[in-house]
Amino acid sequence: MFRFFQILFYTVIAWWLVSTLAGIHWIVLLVATTMAGTNATVVYMQREHPAVLVRFTNGKFRRGYVNCVCFFTGQPRCWDGTTESRPSLKLQSVHDFELASKRAKQAVRGHDDVIDSMLSRLHENLTLRKSRKAADQTGPLASFLLAGPEGIGKRYLSRVVAKLLYGSAQVEVYDCGKLTRESLLGTVGQKGKLFDIVHRTPCFMLLFENIERADEGVATAIVQLLTSGKLIPPGEAASIAFQQTTVVLTSCRSANPIAERATGTREPQSWRSSIELVTSEIQIDARIAEAVTEVCLLSAPNDLVKAEVVALQMQKECRDHGVTLSKVAPEILAVQVLQIVEGEGFQFVPQRIQKLVRKPLMEATANDTTSLSLRIRPQSPA
Asked: Would you say 287 and 335 are in contact if contact means Cβ atoms under 8 Å apart?
């Protein structure tokens, strides 16, 4: 009903304007009608075919006109051809992705196979997009389902990949356990926050946590996003593209070892069998498992990986205070590793490290020392 009255209102306004302009002079009506049609075309092209629009705005005047239309209609501005303003990916060549893989493995420990898989699929999709003849793309840049125990770094891994791919670790996070279709897409007359974000920053990472908790409405919207790369705001006819977006879905439910091995092959028949197996193990909507680019199963870290993560966190905490951590006693690392329990993961490691190094950092600051060594201090005799 609201949509009906909205259309009726716009129709009456348009009729009044046409009558008024026609009463002034037919040339004025012709110019106004031409401008209105041109503006509508610009908005449509910016939403549906932005790459084509860019090719037609290489002149300064045309680019300024299109940017002006986009500004007043709330659309993202047309790119002006400069490196700073064009939404672009930081990773393009094979060398870029290989270097990104090395950097990601230095920051994220214990998930080397997952990092290789994510970056490999991103590179494949980007390469295929460049060779695609049609201007339109299908689906987001890539989508991944990360399943594994809580607290093993799924969100942190996503942020690292986003930083390498887009140059920013900013990730838009939604908890599917608290998410509704209305809170995701908005309502009639009020778009959801997600559409504002993609207008401002077409290149970003979208993270849906606890995907197994998504209700029917949310799951349907996510499937549409994964398959078409577009979503339609409620009450509107035009869709908004998310084709430069990377979508990550996470689940804290673990799959058994058979399911983990099953995801390692890409043959069509084996892949379908593995999807069915993983879907039953993780208990998510089968449509989502079919639509994602890659299913990645993350294992719980062993003690060596835990020690590496703790050591990296210690180094970071010291580095943030301008101090270099030169050495850590094995006993200190062992105690910290023992405090990392299943179901909690690395969630509270930063807080524990802050408490551990607080006094040594205070002493280093007081003594104006730039190097710090953590060791067990012998107890003084009674």
From this structure: no
Q: Mapping DSSP to helix (H, G, I), strand (E, B) and coil, where does residue 349 land? A: helix
Looking at the chain, list the stretches that DSSP marks H as alpha helix, in order from N- to C-terminal side.
2-24, 26-48, 50-55, 60-73, 94-107, 112-131, 154-166, 181-185, 193-200, 216-228, 257-262, 268-282, 286-291, 303-319, 330-338, 349-366
CA 266, CA 262: separation in Å to the nearest integer? 9
Q: Long-range contacts of range 367-371, CB-CB < 8 Å, 24 or more positions apart?
A: 369/323, 370/322, 370/323, 370/324, 371/323, 371/324, 371/326
Distance CA 24, CA 110 (A): 74
Cβ atoms of residues 248 and 158 within 8 Å: yes
Residue whose structure tokens are 């012709």? 30
Q: What is the pLDDT of residues 351-374, one digit of tens each?
A: 999 999 899 899 888 888 888 888
**Alpha-carbon span 306 to 315, nearest angstrom:** 14
Pair of tokens at residue 366: 């007081």
Please report the domains of the chain, with CATH numbers, ordered by start residue.
Answer: 2-73 (no CATH), 94-297 (3.40.50.300), 303-374 (no CATH)
Q: Distance from first CA to last CA of the chain, Å, rounded?
A: 84
Is the Cα dihedral 4, 72, 57, 32 positive or negative? positive
The per-residue pLDDT for range 292-350, each reduced to its tens digit, is 998 888 888 888 888 988 898 899 899 988 889 988 888 888 988 888 887 777 878 88
The model's confidence at residue 56, banded by pLDDT at 50, 70 and 90, is low
* Cβ contact 122:165 at 8 Å: yes
